[in-house]
Amino acid sequence: MIAPLGFSGKVPGAISCRGCGAVIASEADALSVMGRPVQSTYVNPVGAVCEILTLGEAANLIGASASTEAHTWFEGYAWRPVACASCQQLLGWRYEASSPGLEPQTFFGLLVGAITRPGDPGRDM
User: Which pLDDT does position 11 carry in this prediction?
Assistant: First the structure.
């Protein structure tokens, strides 16, 4: 179930924005990309450590209009930042295949620190 924009009710298995509680995805949307675990840690060019969860589907997000392949963590994929459509907090990135034959064609990498998941300490579920 994907909830309407801004929904912050209790949905079993929901992955939500930590800032406002808007439902972004379901745990069932977790997806391994390029044989990697669904939750992995990456370092960007300025040295920031980013722990991300990869998902095949996500909702209630807004993204930058242009994507780039610069410094991608997934070879053959361009990325663009995505934020919560409700509170505009940066949640991660949308990845889009820029090389032919890649599957999935699109996926999302959400910052673990920017979302809540069932079982998170302090989560009111």
Answer: 55
Query: Does the residue 63 lie in any domain?
Result: yes
Is 83 among the domain residues?
Answer: yes
Spatial neighbors of 17 by CB under 8 A, at least 6 apart, are 24, 60, 84, 86, 87, 89, 91, 114, 115, 116
Q: Nearest-CA neighbor of 14 among 120, 121, 116?
A: 116
* Banded model confidence at residue 120, pLDDT cuts 50, 70, 90: confident
**The domain spanning residue 18 has which CATH number?**
2.170.150.20
Stated pTM of the model = 0.86
Q: Is residue 1 part of a domain?
A: no
Distance from C-alpha of 107 to C-alpha of 77, rounded to nearest angstrom: 10
Cα–Cα distances (Å) from 94 to 11, 24, 108, 120, in that order, read: 23, 13, 4, 24
Inside any domain, residue 5: no
Instruction: Grade residue 12 by pLDDT with cuts at 50, 70 and 90.
Output: low
Upstream peptide bond of 118 is cis (omega within 30 degrees of 0): no
For residue 66, the enclosing domain spans: 14-116
